[in-house]
Amino acid sequence: TMTAVAVLGVGVCCPLGSDLAQLVAALDAGTSALAPHPPLANLPTGDLAGVVAKPDLKPWLRRRKDRKIMARASELALAAAGPASVGSTAPVADIGVFIGVGRERPDDGDSEAALAASALNGRLDDDLLAGPGRDRYPPLLPLKTLPNMVLAHISINLGYMGENGAWAGEGAAGLRALVAAVQAVSEGRCPEAMAGGADSLVGLGNARDRLRMGASGPPGEGAAVLRLGPLGSPGTLAVLDIDPGAATDLQWRPLLGDLGAAAGVFEVAILVASGRSGRVVLADPGEPPVGIAVRSAEAC
After folding, report:
1. Which residues contact 213 (CB under 8 A, 6 or more apart)?
2. Of 73, 109, 128, 269, which one has the fewest beta carbons inside 10 Å?
3. What angle do CA 243, 249, 253 make, to 5 degrees?
4. Are 244 and 289 contacting, i.e. CB atoms less than 8 angstroms apart?
5. Which residues pair with 240 in a beta bridge?
6. C-beta neighbour count of 47 within 10 angstroms
7. Tens digits of per-residue pLDDT, 219-258?
8. What is the pTM of this model?
9. What is the SS3 string spanning 177-225?
């Protein structure tokens, strides 16, 4: 079909690790990554979560000090994008980046001093907020909370300057980014594209928001990134196409916790890594479903 593209690279970062062969084997064996997570100890939903060990960013991070301004989702995304980029021969200035991320990260206490300085008799005071409150607001905090900073950190550290976009929101955000990347590559707007999703829901603020919105099941965190190229490219691992038909029954999510915006792309990545065909379909409330069909290299 006109929108089909080749998968040329895969990178993941999840609670069960980043080695694709070991990860596929662990998921097939039903290995759970859920474990007690102390920050969630007092929540009525329990303290289980799928938490990633500290990602190794040394091979991909241009300046080590930049990690101080990276939100957790940015770290996870770069840890997945780096391995997916290996082997690319396309001009980096033309490679596109399409990333789906979660909602804007809640404040976990970074701005408490500013809010305290802005309060008068238990209420927020505009004059204090514009004076001592503003003076105490951490100047780098927006760089940690803005959703499109995930895209920025990938582009800066890997050198990509092609077409790009960030989709923020619910669980289908990553798949929406992947659909946009498939369209960009199949229409020839960029020779290759990095497409994926990254999210972290294991912090107390995120877990609290999930509880308020009625979400069920333990939270998790992770990222998955695919490198896409034109059909017929050397080294094709699988073929993707846009297809919101019936989804393949996949049983991985309960093993890792809620991966948020990364969930759909993660499932596509595991299908590719395992050499299987299938279809991943997600729909956010009030939005039409979005789907990606995976055809293994052997099936093509």
Report:
1. none
2. 109
3. 105
4. yes
5. 5, 294
6. 16
7. 999 999 999 999 999 999 999 999 988 899 888 888 999 9
8. 0.91
9. HHHHHHHHHHCCCCCCEEEEEEEECCCHHHHHHHHHCCCCCCEEEEEEE
